Amino acid sequence: MEIRPTTDEDFDVFVDTLHAAFGRFPETPAEGGGVWWAALEMDRSLLAVTADGRPVGTAAAHSFELTLPGEILVPAAGVTAVGVLPSHRRRGVLSAMMRHQFTQLRAQGEFLSVLLASEALIYGRFGYGPATYEQRLTVPRHQAALALPRARGTVDDASATGSVELLRRAECGEILEEVYDRYRRAQPGALSRPHRWWTLGAGQPPVSPAPRYVAVHRDADGVPDGYASYSISEPAILTVDETIATDDAVSTALARFVLGHDLVTQVVFKHFPPGHPLRWQLADFRAVRVSEDTDWLWVRLLDVPRALTARGWFSDGELVLDVDDPFLGEHGRYLLTVRDGKADCVPTDREPDLSLDVRDLGSVYLGGTTPSALVRAGHIRAHHADAATLADVLFRAERTPHCLHWF
């Protein structure tokens, strides 16, 4: 078996092999637009082929920017389109592609890889850890009243200074792209959406051109600063694909708009981060039903010192991390020193504060998973009583990391 890079000439073979791996057939493009695989970068894709040239596995990577804590933008390889034909599974094909891909990414100078895991059991063994999470919130229309603000200066006061305009998806592509880009630059855990994704309609709504209504929020000067993309299906369920808001005031205004829609029985908000304030804003706290509470973005550190010094930090301190990377057969002990929002990370022979797998370091990296939770779960070993508490303080982010982009 050979793992080889692909070219544009391999596109159709790659797509056919990928679909066969999942037992599916390529669907017909949505009306007026493309398909999700149109955004694949063939110069960053791999094919596993047998000795007689038959393709049996695929793997690809998108070129994204990831927003780290501290509003720092770094390159991140978005791994996708990973599949092995059923006839060749459990023969080491997947491991060979992952190892080849890591070698390729490191050679290109990349230190972070991210993905959305089709199955939770697969990617931990390759060093990926779940780092952002999401929920689906459902609100019955008859319980959708928002409580009045209790004090001046609340987000509800602020929302009165803007307006909401209803548009169709086909009318506001440039607005969606611009507002999303402003949002993702300030949101830890968010990924960029390259312009070509919007042009190709490669993704899920609202990136895809599927028919949607879009509630666009504008500030007092008429500048768009948020949107909610939604559709209504039988039996009278309004589903919000995506809510983008540059602040809590905009989020509240958009929630009020969709919750006030007539002739629907319930409103479903997809892809909300844990701890979203909506349920606290409703007059009936019990009105919200939480479902599909799950992981989203998984993170893999390919260069521990570079990754730790890249992100922003919000507390000073020192921590010695003993990091094991079983898949790549690597091990390192690092002294992490944080001062004034910046970190230094160097090899050390000091006694460790924490011993952990690289996948667990990926989980805590963005601040969405506390080290103490993984200590209690038995994933991370704390070598003294204060180690987990110190790590919690150091690894926190300025806000809950969240990723909306599907790839």
TrEMBL record:
Membrane-spanning residues where? none
* Binding-site positions, acetyl-CoA: 82-84, 90-95, 118-119
| Keywords from the UniProt entry | Acyltransferase, Transferase
Q: Does the keyword Transmembrane apply?
A: no
Fetch the NCBIfam families from UniProt.
PRK01346.1-4 (NF002367)
Q: Which family does it belong to?
A: Belongs to the acetyltransferase Eis family.
**PANTHER family xrefs:** N-ACETYLTRANSFERASE EIS
**Name the UniProt record assigns to this protein:** GNAT family N-acetyltransferase
Q: Which organism is it from?
A: Amycolatopsis rhizosphaerae
